[in-house]
Amino acid sequence: MHDKQVGLEIPRDERDGSFTSESVAELIRRVMVEKEGESIRSNAWAMKEIFGNVELNKHCLDEFYRVLETWPNST
């Protein structure tokens, strides 16, 4: 989501991939409250129009299912 500019990546411990509750809280505050997060919030609302569209999602799933059904068997 970070690459799509709709979120920020939480810094993780390089050894085990863990993160702290403080770092999560800080990023939530930056995205949801601070001016820095305005573009992220705007991009997230734009993405909502795509991912929140039930008809579009149904169409995409139907098309994916059709492709899987017609895919040639490898055996």
From TrEMBL:
Gene3D superfamilies: Glycogen Phosphorylase B. This is Uncharacterized protein. It comes from Malus baccata (Siberian crab apple).
